């Protein structure tokens, strides 16, 4: 047992030192890569989004984001398949009902958290944030439900419906770009004025779709874990 | 001190990766191994973000009209890390569900006691 730890320690040290010795040549705080400065100089003109990270995620690299959403979807699917085989225990009987303070706090905070998550993903092209972050905030509201008002049931089927609609909107907008502009996820909507809510073409629409999809997917993961 | 100032983020990120990989190799509890995987994941994310930093840079968001584009940090690693965090969450959730299933089947999380998983 001791031997394995020592061997592991030496192995890890060698690997980390080798990688660090090559990567430390990249000076800290140096000017950025060519593609990074290209995005910064031309991003606002080409995509209309004030947040350059958003324009990279959803416009220049929109196809990668579709793949990322697919990975999340497959992970949620696999998790659902595995939790389906769990030995179910009786949840209702073992729970003590939560107190009035918790119930009231839950009722008061749940819509506020949903509102904040929605704000984060609608303003993804203007401020830090976006669909993934807003979706994570929305999923945290479901954690609150399971922690405080535990006798409430979340409808799993409704979450699956929202998730599917979000994914379909993403793919549908991509195919509409194929029809209007000649390639997948072409930005066919008007770009509008920089730094206003209705700008940047398809980016806010895509981020709303991603926000709903990620939010319902992560909430579904939480529901799967707690009800099993 | 100058060396520390310029490389503190690299040292911290490689330290996190090292801690995570060491936990993966040395520990036999499955939950601890998953935590190690997650720590290594955070180290990689921190490393990618700190590569994109430039001295006295601002976030790559044109929220005010008089921002200098030369002084904005690189947006590409940030977009990459956004992807990596989401994938990390997905991997973590899937790994935890495997752990729960293994515990229900073998009544233990110790990888040395599970015959099919021994290494």
Strand and helix layout:
The complex is a heterodimer of chains A (228) and B (119).
Chain A: H1 2-23, H2 34-47, H3 52-60, H4 62-84, H5 91-94, H6 100-122, H7 131-148, H8 156-181, H9 203-227
Chain B: H1 2-26, H2 30-51, H3 75-106
Helix pairs in contact in B: 1-2, 2-3
Could you describe the 3D structure shown?
The complex is a heterodimer of chains A (228) and B (119). Chain A has 9 helices and no strands. Helices cover 66% and strands 0% of the residues of chain B. In chain B, helix 1 packs antiparallel against helix 2 and helix 2 runs antiparallel to helix 3. The longest helix of chain B has 32 residues. The termini of chain B are far apart.
Tally of alpha and pi helices of chain B? 3
What's the β-strand tally of chain A? 0
Multimeric organization: heterodimer
CATH topology category name of chain B? Helix Hairpins
Q: Report the strand count of chain B.
A: 0
Overall pLDDT metric of chain B: 82
Structural class of chain B: mainly alpha
Largest sheet of chain B: none
For the largest interface, the chains and their residue counts are:
A-B, 64 and 48 residues
Separation of termini of chain A? 35 Å
Task: Give helix % range of chain A.
Answer: over 70%
Question: What's the gyration radius of chain A in Å?
Answer: 22 Å
Number of helices of chain A: 9
Distance between the termini of chain B: 43 Å
Helix content of chain B: 55-70%
The CATH class label of chain B is Mainly Alpha
Give the number of domains of chain B: 1
Q: How big a fraction of the residues of chain B is strand?
A: under 5%
């Amino acid at each position: 047992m001791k031997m394995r730890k020592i061997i592991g320690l030496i192995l890890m040290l060698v690997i980390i030192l080798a990688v660090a010795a090559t990567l430390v040549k990249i000076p800290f705080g140096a000017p950025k890569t060519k593609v990074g400065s290209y995005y910064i100089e031309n991003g606002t003109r080409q995509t209309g989004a004030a947040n350059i990270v958003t324009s990279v995620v959803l416009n220049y690299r929109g196809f990668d984001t579709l793949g990322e959403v697919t990975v999340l979807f497959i992970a949620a699917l696999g998790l659902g398949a595995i939790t389906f085989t769990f030995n179910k225990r009786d949840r209702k009987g073992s729970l003590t009902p939560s107190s009035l303070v918790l119930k009231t706090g839950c009722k008061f905070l749940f819509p506020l958290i949903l509102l904040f998550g929605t704000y984060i993903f609608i303003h993804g092209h203007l401020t830090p944030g976006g669909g993934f972050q807003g979706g994570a905030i929305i999923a945290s509201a479901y954690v609150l439900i399971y922690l405080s008002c535990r006798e409430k049931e979340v409808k799993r089927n409704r979450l699956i419906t929202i998730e599917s609609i979000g994914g379909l909107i993403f793919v549908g907008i991509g195919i509409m770009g194929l029809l209007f502009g000649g390639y997948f996820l072409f930005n066919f909507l008007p770009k509008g004025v920089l730094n206003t809510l209705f700008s940047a073409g398809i980016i806010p629409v895509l981020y709303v779709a991603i926000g709903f999809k990620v939010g319902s997917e992560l909430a579904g993961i939480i529901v799967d874990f707690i009800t099993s | 001190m100058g060396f520390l100032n310029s490389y503190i983020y690299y040292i911290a990120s490689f330290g996190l990766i090292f801690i995570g990989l060491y936990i993966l190799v040395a520990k036999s509890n499955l939950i601890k191994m998953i935590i190690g995987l997650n720590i290594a994941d955070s180290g990689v994310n921190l490393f990618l973000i700190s590569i994109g930093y430039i001295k006295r840079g601002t976030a790559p968001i044109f929220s005010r009209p008089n921002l200098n584009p030369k002084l904005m940090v690189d947006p590409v690693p940030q977009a990459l890390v956004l992807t990596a965090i989401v994938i990390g969450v997905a991997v973590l959730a899937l790994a935890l569900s495997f752990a729960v299933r293994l515990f229900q089947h073998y009544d233990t999380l110790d990888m040395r006691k599970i015959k099919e998983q021994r290494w």
